[in-house]
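[Solved] Which block belongs to which protein?

Original post:
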Amino acid sequence: MICYCMHMIYIYVGANYFWKKVVVYSDLTRLRRVRILDCESLRYVANSKYFYYMDFIRFEILFRTQLYKNTMKKGLFPVIGSQKFIYKKPLKRWTKLSITLPVEAWNEKWVYHTQTFKQKGEVYAVGFTKVAF
């Protein structure tokens, strides 16, 4: 949990002071390396860590846009409505992967995201998220 909190602080500081701003509906891609502590039996990524990766990229796009400031002014904060995950292949330790977050659709209440986990151009996992404000 400490690593999770530290990573969130890193994303918040980086998004507000060092990284350039992005548009809410732009596709954001992040490159990551699978760490040994993210793995079960020190071999493959644990199922729960995929959701951590999804949180990190979602919060990064939230902090890098004006969305965070506007929602905090109104006293709102995003809440996960539902998440679904499809595992295709296991991610092994020390391998590089890219996570892409496109905003698929939105309406007056929900925002729908699809997170795609790719390695060497091949899809390894896909996550679907429904977020409410």
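(Second protein starts here: sequence line, then its structure tokens.)
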Amino acid sequence: MEIERRHEHYLLTPGPLTVPMATKQQMLVDRSPNSPEFAQLTRDICNYVLEIANGTETHVCVPLQGSATYGNEAAVQTLVPRDGKLLVIQNGYYGVRLVEMARGLRLNHVVLELPLLPLPSREDIEGVLAEHPDITHIMLCHAETGTGVLNPIEMVAEVAREHGKRLIVDAVASFGGFAIDVAGLDLEAVVISPNKCLESVPGVALVIVNKKSLEASAGRSGSVTLDLHAQCKMMSETGAWRWTPPTHVIGALGEAVRRHRAEGGIPARGARYRSNWRILVDGLRQRGFTTLLPDDVAVPIIVTVHDPKHPNYQFSRFYEALQKQGITIFPGRLTSAGTFRIGVMGDLQASDMYVILSAIDTALAEIGVTV
């Protein structure tokens, strides 16, 4: 039986994603950044983000123009004092980016560099804290989509709280698909990207920040544009952004959060992704592929797969054979062996996974590869 194809093009990267048409259509609407309607749209988005993060009473949501990396840098610039010290937990590509950011900011920092597996442990972190008692903040990536692991932020938050440290979480890829209790975990900040589990488009970062910490950060940022305190102050006083906001992106995000709520929020969104991931992983293994990670540590929004050991296989040829069928995948990151990645976030259902598996069969046949 032929499987219905729901999209002309499937964008199966770690983000941006295959975006619902209703969300994309909102980018066709021209909005005034100074209108009361746009201010209300921004507030509605931020209020929903705080609601699903359990942060309405304890935190604020600060939107910032640019990619989520801008949000990470803004969080560090704003929240880590000049006499502070940052511990970066690095066990993947996006952890490396956080280290590069700390170095670029000339921030006093220390790196806990770990292999892909095992995941960071309490002993790993407490060892560094014992050696560097002057550490004030800890930062790590929750869903490390460069390789596909899900880091244990609950354990890290517990260690941070016990030792009097503040935790900043890069939840760029995970927020909206995985529960993050910012109040319960007493998080300093959580950085979010709309173009992952919220299924919107890139162009803005959202930073959930502890209210008291943000209030204490006035004048701390060494950047004019990446100052979360100044941005939040302006928006709370006037409802307006400090600089020209990406109005079309915010329009899309407004629709995306509406759809997120209508689907059933984080539980329903996460369940759909887990279903997609399970079908894809099982189908790939049935075809002879091996995945990089065991299922119990893999983040179920992306699958990292070892390249086939076949003389005819080249990733570029495999990629092009899929592209001709309207399917885009991604190369792997930071692995000793060759890998590729397939994302299952976005406007994707179980039926789409079978479309993708069928396309993989066609691509392998075209390039003369058996797995």
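Accepted answer:
You had them paired correctly. Confirming on the second one: The chain has a mean pLDDT of 96.
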